Amino acid sequence: MATLRTSSDEVNHQLAHEISERLQIAGIQVIEARINNLAYSTEIAGAMLQRQQATAIVAARSKIVEGAVGMVEMALEQLSRKNIVDLDEEKKAAMVSNLLVVLCGDRNAQPIVNTGTLHH
């Protein structure tokens, strides 16, 4: 699909053709037609900006999640390899969940002091 940004010559040629067809009946010959300035209404411009920002946010979040998953994998691998702690599947799932919340969240993590045992 041709757009002004990527194919302005093609768009201008098509515009000249369309105008020429309509004005031919009046005996007017169109030599050239060009769009020099394109302004969007405030509502359209706002909607386009919002869509552009949403796309950027989704792309950034995707990169954050990709990095977080890699960090979680690395943490699990190192804990297992170095025998630092023995985690069953339930504890691994809880740790993965906690790490992903911390790594993917848009706010700083708040520390929590566990005053109970490891199993409660």
Overall pLDDT confidence: 86
**Counting H and I runs of at least 4 residues, what is the number of helices?**
3
Share of β-strand residues: under 5%
Task: Indicate the structural class.
Answer: mainly alpha
The largest β sheet comes out as: none
What's the count of strands? 0
Question: What is the alpha-carbon Rg in Å?
Answer: 29 Å
Distance between the termini: 60 Å
Following the backbone from N to C, one meets helices and strands in this order, namely HHH
Shape assignment: rod-shaped
Helix content: 55-70%
Give unreliable regions as ranges.
none
Structural domains: how many: 2
Secondary-structure topology with pairs:
Elements (H helix, E strand, L loop, with lengths): L7 H16 L18 H40 L7 H16 L16
Structure description:
With 120 residues, the protein is mainly α. The chain has 2 domains: 1-38, no CATH class; 53-107, no CATH class. It has 3 helices and no strands. The longest helix has 40 residues, at 42-81. The mean pLDDT is 86.
Descriptors for this entry?
rod-shaped; mainly alpha; 3 helices; 2 domains; 120 residues
Quick structural summary:
With 120 residues, this protein is mostly helical. Helix content is 60%, strand content 0%. It has two domains: 1-38, no CATH class; 53-107, no CATH class.
